[in-house]
Design a protein that fits this description.
With 719 residues, the chain is an alpha+beta fold. Helices cover 46% and strands 18% of the residues. The protein folds into four domains: 177 residues, no CATH class; 200 residues, PAS domain (Beta-Lactamase); 95 residues, no CATH class; 147 residues, 2-Layer Sandwich (Heat Shock Protein 90).
């Protein structure tokens, strides 16, 4: 079963490679057409531009004598023999498996190369024989020239066999014997990882990653605390001003820290690379000067076999002096000397000079180059003789060690992280103190307004700094207090005068009603004096006068009772027993259906025991008057304990409901006002007195009404 799966995977991946290769061939044909057009104009800059953006398809142009153009120089290997045109064939170079094709264009022979997979003789972490983009196949496959069993044959666009794709056994790096590049200074990472001193051990971790983890943890903790706070306060807008200020300060500080952290790493890396670039440029100039002053090259006009025989020895000496590798190329761009020949012997680097340097007007430049996955920097300059005539090219490579960059970052952050962390803690503490300092006057103002009383003492606020915005707010508050107290005095005086005028009119009206029939009765007695009817009329008149005098006495008693109501004295009473006894009295004297729902005793509440019965009487009496015109009059009195959701305290609710016609909307706001009544009889003081008694006991009274009836509620706190 596993063999079938393996074969199926090989076939599937082989088809993908075949399809990708055909697309690369088509792209090569397109670029070849552009290249031929540029060659006819002999414009090297245009040729470089036409092939620059496609680094995975290479072009080499030859005339009858030598190679005159190459698009890229990373491919290393021996020369390719011209045997036929316009036919793709397989070729293994020193560092890559490729397919190639020759084409004739005028006086030129053009070789187009499509790299498929790296084939370095030395393989380690830096040099991995992976498939080259865009051939995205796993490393478990090998490319071989001969047909094999259990392999996939890859063909050209014309169906010609090119190579086979087969599975390979992956070897560990330690199993692969190879030459150590011990003579190289710039390519140390290409050494075996076990012997490379630049490879960092696990006992010496990169500290900036630890700083990064600590930073992420700090951010995560801050975000968690912030999210919990926002959820608990039901959103940022619902927070107190002090908390908002702390959140703003903390957020600004954290983002500032993150910005400094990221920019510090970026600055150190860029500064390190800049220093390395400057140092490499100066090193290349020193090497150029040292070679120029040597007698072997001072009077020569070109590098040849005669004068380059000792070049490798000279380059090796300079390499030891400047601790770097040095490569020298002749005027045709071919390697003629190097301090590290094993790099070229192992096929790691091409023996051709970079095309951009060779075809540039000024070859002095710094270029980023690459061997496999290893990127490095290379400084190029001219090889000049004593007359400053160019006789070749000098290349000085430098590998920018990631470990050295990390060390630079570690050294910088180790000096910055702890102090900055202390600064963050100090800023957090400072923000808390500063937010409290800013909001303290507002808290004082809020507390003053919470306990503000008209006519009370010490309503003003004292604030030292009167010039800032809070000082202006305090000044406005003090001004408002003064104006409010003056307005309260005027309003109280006006209300007292208005109340006296209203009371006087009400008393005059109530007294005037019985005086009119009394006056008429006395006048009638005067007219009948001395007549026979006097005695009979006198007997009837005296009864009427006595009745009206009693009415006057009742009016005076009502107003006196309202004006001289005794102070409410709360005690612990059995409110259920009080209510049930009042209901029992009403049941014995009323025909209306009066029902009671609740316990008959055992509900203790805080109230005035003597006056609370008057509240029961007033509410039940009002309910009876509301249903007296109905044949199906129904009154329900209910008592039930409940928990106040505002302060979580136990309360008792007494409700008196009737099925009368309800209270008209236009008079509902006046229902608890003194002297207001909707009945033809009564003084309109019953509900006002009841409200004073209930609120004096610490309770509340309210009502709900509709066309189907009215319900009065009053609530008292239980013991």
């Amino acid at each position: 079963m596993s063999l079938l799966c393996s074969c199926h995977s090989l076939e599937s991946d082989g088809k993908r490679l075949q399809a990708t290769l055909l697309r690369q061939m088509e792209l090569s044909d397109t670029l070849m057409t552009v290249l031929e057009a540029q060659l006819s104009g002999r414009n090297v800059d245009s040729i470089l531009l036409a092939t620059k953006n496609e680094s995975n398809i290479l072009f080499y142009v030859f005339d009858s004598q030598r190679m005159v153009f190459w698009s890229n120089n990373w491919l290393a290997g021996s020369d390719v023999v011209l045997d036929r045109y316009d036919a793709w064939f397989y070729k293994r170079f020193d560092n890559a498996h490729c397919v190639c094709r020759w084409r004739r264009s005028g006086f030129y022979n053009i070789l187009s190369v499509v790299p498929v997979k790296y084939s370095y003789k030395i393989e380690n972490e830096q040099l991995r024989n992976t498939f080259i983009s865009p051939f995205s196949l796993p490393d478990k496959y090998d490319v071989v020239s001969a047909r094999q069993e259990q392999s996939y044959a890859v063909v050209s666009d014309k169906g010609t066999y090119l190579f086979s794709l087969t599975k390979s056994e992956k070897k560990t790096y330690s199993e692969q014997g190879h030459e150590r590049l011990s003579d190289s200074f710039s390519y140390r990472s290409l050494l075996d990882p076990a012997t490379d001193p630049s490879v960092r051990s696990e006992d010496n971790p990169v500290r900036w990653r630890l700083f990064l983890i600590m930073t992420l943890l700090l951010f995560g903790f801050a975000l968690l605390v912030g999210a919990i706070g926002i959820i608990r306060h039901h959103g940022f807008r619902s927070m107190r001003l002090r908390t908002k200020l702390m959140y703003v300060f903390a957020t600004i500080m954290l983002f500032t820290y993150a910005y400094v952290f990221v920019m510090s790493i970026r600055y150190v890396r860029e500064h390190y690379e800049l220093r390395q670039r400057d140092g490499l440029s100066r090193r290349a100039q020193y090497i150029q000067k040292a070679l120029q002053l040597q007698d072997a090259y001072y009077w020569n006009v070109a590098l040849s076999d005669y004068n380059s025989g000792t070049l490798n020895i000279d380059l090796r000496d300079l390499s030891l002096t400047y601790q770097t590798d040095i490569h020298v190329y002749d005027l045709n761009g071919n390697l003629v000397g190097t301090s590290a020949p094993s790099l070229f012997d192992n096929g790691l680097i091409s023996r051709h000079l970079s095309a951009e340097v060779f075809f540039a007007a000024d070859p002095t430049m710094l270029r980023d180059e690459q061997i496999g996955d290893m990127k490095y920097l290379c400084a190029y300059t001219e090889f000049v003789n004593g007359n400053y005539m160019r006789i070749g090219y000098i290349a000085v490579p430098l590998y920018l060690s990631e470990d050295e960059v990390n060390d630079e970052v570690d050294n910088f952050l180790s000096k910055l992280f702890v102090p900055y962390l202390l600064v963050i803690l100090l800023v957090v503490v400072f923000s808390m103190l500063f937010a409290r300092y800013l909001t303290r006057p507002l808290d004082t103002l809020s507390e003053k307004m919470r306990h503000f009383e008209i006519g009370g003492k010490n309503n003003h606020l004292d604030y030292v700094n009167q010039d800032d915005e809070i000082g202006e707010l305090v000044a406005r508050y003090n001004q408002m207090v003064d104006e409010l107290e003056a307005s309260a005095d005027r309003l109280a005086r006006s209300e007292r005068e208005g109340a006296w005028r209203t009371m006087a009119r009400q008393i005059a009206h109530e007294i005037n009603n019985p005086l009119t029939p009394m006056k008429l009765t006395i006048q009638q007695l005067q007219r009948t004096k001395g007549t026979e009817r006097f005695d009979d009329y006198f007997a009837r008149s005296t009864n009427l006068l006595i009745e009206q005098i009693d009415n006057l006495s009742r009016i005076a008693s009502s107003f006196s009772q309202f004006a001289k109501m005794p102070e409410v004295i709360t005690t612990d009473i059995d409110v259920a027993q009080k209510l049930f006894s009042v209901i029992s009295l009403f049941r014995s004297n009323n025909d209306a259906d009066l029902r009671y729902v609740g316990p008959e005793s055992g509900v203790m509440a805080r109230a005035d025991g003597e006056q609370i019965a008057q509240v029961f009487n007033n509410l039940i009496k009002n309910a009876q008057q509301a249903v007296e015109q109905k044949t199906d009059g129904n009154i329900i009195v209910m008592l039930k304990p409940f928990v106040n959701q505002t302060n979580s305290k136990q309360m008792v609710e007494i409700s008196v409901s009737d099925n009368g016609d309800g209270i008209a909307p236009e008079v509902q706001e006046k229902i608890f006002m003194p002297n207001f009544t909707t009945k033809s009889t009564g003084m309109g003081l019953g509900l006002a007195i009841s409200k004073n008694i209930v609120e004096g006991s610490g309770g509340t009274i309210s009502f709900e009404t509709s066309e189907k009836g009215t319900v009065f509620f009053f609530r008292l706190y239980m013991v």
